[in-house]
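Q: I'm writing a short methods note and want an example of a predicted protein-small molecule complex. Could you take the sequence and the SMILES for zinc ion and return the bound structure as tokens? Please keep the output block clean; save any remarks for afterwards.
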Amino acid sequence: MRIIFNPGLFFQVSSFMFTKIILQRLAQTEPVITRLKQMQLQTKNSLDWFEFPHLAEHPGLVHAVFTRNHGYSNPPYDSLNVGMHVGDATETVRRNRAAIVDCLGGWELVEIHQVHGTHVLSIHPGAVGNTADLFQGDAVITNITGKLLLIQTADCQPILLYDPVRQVIANIHSGWKGSILNIIQKTIQNMVDNFACRPHHLLAGVGPSLGPCCAEFIHYQNEIPEQFWGYKDARDHFNFWALSANQLTAAGVLSRNIHISGLCTRCRPDLFFSYRRHVVTGRCAAVIGLRGLGANP
Ligand SMILES: [Zn+2]
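A: Understood, no commentary inside the block.
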């Protein structure tokens, strides 16, 4: 039997194997596990919310990932639903949102129309623009105090960013589409370009969302580009927490400044809404805001 060495084929195969190994290494990067940090549960006015310990250290910042409990909505939106367009009564959603704002001390709630895209909205002094365009997107950034940036989720990742040097905040909505489009990188680039942030100053918190325990994609070959298949296990479950951690570090965020809640929304219907579990359901609120110096907020 003659074995003919084909340099071109050898290069293609070895290149493919090398890429696959690199992707697998990235997907299984050990520090992701060490970045899982226990969030702290807080309670006030009968509402419950989680905080990231590294963000809670900063008195100039308010942030919260609220549970689904102790709101006004009836099933299947029970009960602290902040989603306006999921079938719940508008007036009830307004009451839930008002309860959140009251609980945190009075803020202007900033909502964006989330569309699973990559448009990043910047709110800074002097910003002008068409209101409809201004508020459609999946990430929002500001350096203005008193604005509470809201992201609504039921399995998607809310990702909170804070630059304590420049006093800039961002809130990102990243579902699986946002993950493969890398909205994290686009948001951080916007913070660099428009707010003079430096990525190594940023603190990041990846909130409760669909974990690798439940993120099964049986049609992944049609839905998810091959470059991300290294994040898949043998059961076709994807680890989007690991992908976010890697996207944050690739954008320049220091590993020690990245905290991942490790709470899976589908596994915890007692705490969170989950689209995967219930389809018709509410949306949880993740918020972040800058206090004025010496003022409340
Ligand atoms: Zn799960």
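A: Remarks, as requested: The pocket of zinc ion is lined by residues 211, 213-214, 264, 266-267 (CB under 6 Å). Residues 122 and 194 are 8 Å apart (CA to CA).
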